[in-house]
Amino acid sequence: EGLSNVNYIWTQHPAFSGTFSLLRVPGKWRASLYPAPGETIEQALEPDAIQRKLQAIHPKPGDYDVPDLRPYRIHQRIVETYRVGRLLLAGDAAHLNSPSGGMG
């Protein structure tokens, strides 16, 4: 009950943005990093690009251990009309939004 036991941090960097989630697994974080402006998905998934972003946010000696990569595309849709006759759509029934690639 109550709020989630996961801490979320939003990062806005001059070159890119993303989110970090402190999981309930000791020493593990989940990072959702968006491609930098002009960077393709393929380029963003290169190990050097990932390390560069992580080091820009929190510099440390050596590379970060990145055990898993799961690229995804955020998509959103909304109904064209909220009401047809006696039928009314509201809240989550009226839109689709993938929260953090379905990992939210």
UniProtKB/TrEMBL annotation:
Presence of keyword Oxidoreductase: yes
SUPFAM superfamilies in alphabetical order: FAD/NAD(P)-binding domain (SSF51905)
Segments forming a coiled coil: none
Keyword vocabulary terms for this entry: Monooxygenase, Oxidoreductase
GO MF annotations, alphabetized: FAD binding; monooxygenase activity
Pfam families from the UniProt entry: FAD_binding_3
InterPro entries hit by this protein: FAD-bd, FAD/NAD-bd_sf
Stretches assigned to the FAD-binding domain: 29-104
The species this protein was found in: Dendronalium phyllosphericum CENA369
Protein name: FAD-dependent monooxygenase
